[in-house]
């Protein structure tokens, strides 16, 4: 009954799923909701590597708001690409950036993290490709991570000469603990899927995208006999202090970010990193 009334808020059904976009035109984020289960698949689709720019984050943020309003039964976050889940922040948002744009950009990233980390329904990251830095952050924000074998994941900020913000760090610490996080963060470690599974950074390994997606769907079955309210409230209690640490300091966090990336040595490092990316290819 609940499912029916919640789903009746969604736009037209097509082949058992409802496609949906907050702007009416699907662009960088495509949301489909399964008619039977009420589970939403949020597909990031910004070629070539789903790097996070202002436009993608703005769409993702409004999709998350709509999913919250429409009482989705769960979210699977995945990539359109089998190679890259998300390459993290689009370096062009930090390199030689304008104050107005970078302010909007960072605020949108904060907003997405707050909404995803605190989403009331169960969330799964179907990590069907590499997930460095901001890509890893999106995966860490979900409750469960299924990752395709032979990919990489981690917060590699120090390798770029930048510092992962406190809320990135907290998201990692809450999953793999302080000691493992300290080593990983200070060395900018990118874990292979196999390594990530060993330390609990991901929960399951999959053969390919299809396998990862079906394993992601299995996660929701754990809650078949659990009250949705009890589940959601428990999640909220567990995550509240981590979320509040950013909510109370958004302005300060924004200033720190802008101040940090404007430093001459950081700008120089980002420029060199961009150049090195253009020269290198990952097998
Ligand atoms: C003290 C107070 C602290 C306050 C905080 C201050 C600062 C910190 C703030 C933020 C933290 C930063 C978070 C980030 O997310 S930074 C981004 C980190 N990302 C990476 O390091 C990933 C880089 N990319 C890769 O490793 C690879 O691209 C890949 C993801 C493994 C995919 O490899 P593949 O071989 O499939 O693709 P290509 O490498 O050929 O890439 C294709 C194309 O995309 C361009 N590109 C890749 N990544 C990015 C990116 N993140 N931003 C912009 N552009 C990217 C790449 O250059 C290629 O471009 P081309 O023109 O050559 O086609």
Question: What attributes characterize this protein structure?
Answer:
single chain; about 280 residues; alpha/beta; 2-enoyl-CoA Hydratase, Chain A, domain 1; eight-stranded mixed beta sheet; three-stranded mixed beta sheet; 11 helices; about 50% helix; about 15% strand; globular; disordered N terminus; binds ligand L52RLTOW; Enoyl-CoA delta isomerase 1, mitochondrial; delta(3)-delta(2)-enoyl-CoA isomerase activity; fatty acid metabolism; ClpP/crotonase-like_dom_sf; transit peptide
Plain-language structure description:
This protein has one domain: 2-enoyl-CoA Hydratase, Chain A, domain 1 (Alpha-Beta Complex), CATH 3.90.226. About 50% of the residues lie in helices and about 15% in strands. A hairpin with a 2-residue loop joins strand 1 and strand 2. Helix 2 packs parallel to helix 3, helix 4 packs across helix 5 and helix 5 packs across helix 9. The longest helix has 20 residues. The N terminus is likely disordered. It binds ligand L52RLTOW. Ligand L52RLTOW binds next to helix 10 and helix 11. It is found in: Mitochondrion matrix. Homotrimer.
């Amino acid at each position: 009954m609940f499912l029916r009334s919640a789903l009746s808020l969604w736009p037209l059904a097509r082949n058992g799923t409802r496609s949906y976009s907050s702007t009416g035109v699907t662009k960088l984020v495509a949301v489909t909701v399964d008619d039977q289960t009420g589970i939403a698949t949020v597909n990031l689709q910004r070629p070539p590597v789903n790097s996070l720019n202002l436009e993608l984050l703005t769409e993702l943020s409004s999709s998350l708001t709509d999913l919250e309003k429409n009482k989705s039964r769960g979210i699977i976050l995945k990539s359109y690409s089998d190679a890259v889940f998300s390459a993290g922040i689009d370096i062009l948002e930090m390199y030689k950036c304008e104050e107005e744009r970078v302010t909007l950009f960072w605020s949108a990233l904060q907003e997405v993290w707050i909404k995803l980390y605190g989403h009331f329904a169960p969330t799964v990251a179907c990590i069907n490709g590499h997930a460095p830095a901001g890509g890893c952050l999106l995966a860490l924000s979900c409750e469960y991570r299924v990752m395709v074998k032979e990919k990489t994941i981690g917060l590699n900020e120090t390798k770029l000469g930048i510092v992962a913000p406190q809320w990135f760090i907290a998201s990692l610490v809450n999953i793999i603990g302080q000691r493992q996080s300290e080593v990983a963060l200070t060395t900018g470690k990118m874990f292979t899927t196999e390594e990530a599974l060993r330390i609990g950074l991901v929960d399951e390994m999959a053969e390919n995208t299809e396998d990862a997606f079906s394993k992601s769907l299995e996660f929701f079955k754990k809650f078949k006999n659990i009250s949705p309210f009890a589940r959601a409230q428990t999640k909220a209690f567990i995550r509240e202090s981590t979320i509040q640490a950013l909510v109370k300091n958004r302005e300060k966090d924004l200033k720190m970010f802008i101040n940090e990336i404007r430093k001459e040595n950081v700008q120089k490092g980002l420029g060199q990193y961009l150049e090195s990316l253009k020269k290198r290819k990952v097998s």
